[in-house]
Give the backbone structure.
Amino acid sequence: MLDLKPTGAGTGTAVAAREDGVQVRANVYPVQVAGVGIAIPEGRLTNADLERMVETTDEWIVSRTGIRERRIAPPDVATSDLALAAARAALNDAAMEPGEIDLIIVATITPDHSFPATACLVQAGLGIANIPAYDLSAGCSGLAYAIDQAWHALSSGAYKNALVIGADTLSRIVDFTDRRTCVLFGDGAAALVLSRREPGATPGILASNLGADGRGGSLLILPAGGSRLPASHATVAARQHYLQMNGQEVFKFAVRILEESTRRVLAKAGLTVDDLDLFIPHQANIRIIEAARERLGIPPERVIVNVDHYGNTSAASIGLALAEALQEGRLRPGMLVAMTGFGTGLTWGSILLRWTKEPNGTPAVTER
Ligand code: ACO
């Protein structure tokens, strides 16, 4: 692991001491969140609606998951449409023009198409060109993965302003005849503008912890439509174009990794759970959030929960919760916040932030 020690104020250069003792020089610029924006479809799917679609009850859904309703994109709205709307809202919040962005990363498992990348569609929608734009697949950990990647791209000095988006329309891959999964998921997008600051500025992003354990790949999977099982009449008839999940195994993994990854990211910054002002866990199930919160020993008032009105929005989840914390005035400059996701892969990702952005009164939300 690299242990970066700044060599002098104002140089932006650090000495990285590798575990093998070799010293390398690296540019290290502070990176801050400059803007946040979200996009959520107007259409709501309530538990009462689901009672009419599958053998379930509002009581079962609320007691087992904490979810009361989710947002569902209309047929003519794809992931890139939500991603673009969130991107525009984030740019507006950052008071920046699209032309100031020099890197776009979209985290999604429901891209508009296998290719081109959804990030390229967003780039075209913003009317900009000639900058890298790519997608990243890490399920509900996607936004944490994307923030980590953009952070390193910016802190190295290679890029100046990155647009990082978590966007998913899981309603497109959910089997609405399967009560075990269809009650859980909703659609949405969240975007962050991350900006490189001059050396000496307060670092916004302090640490990250990413990981994956591919042995759990079959626990949450979209079996068909890729090179393993190309689309055919048989795969459609077998409903293999819908996501399949082993809920109980994912549940156990989620509770364990939410605690472990959050502790690891804090330890990397030399901090502990007691230093945290706000914890933003992936919003999959209130019981997962509660179990992780208790293991971590964080009081309920320091945890953001919005799973009741959005359900599990996959890559958008921690971004939607971050935006809500800002809108409610629960996240203010100077606060320490950890955002931790987990998802298909299996993957996990935790980002530790010192919040630096003053509220500017600009609405960060676009509803569509
Ligand atoms: N309504 C009524 N009954 C239901 C429903 C429903 N919607 N769904 C399942 N049941 C039944 C089951 O059939 C079962 O009945 P049985 O005992 O007669 O067989 C019973 O309820 C209990 O089922 P379990 O699966 O044991 O229920 P559990 O308490 O584990 O809750 C759940 C299921 C909500 C899926 C839970 O396991 C969970 O949240 N798992 C984690 C899921 C998750 O976080 N996924 C997101 C990963 S992120 C990403 O990358 C997209």
In short: The first helix runs from residue 47 to 51. The first strand starts at residue 3 and ends at 6.
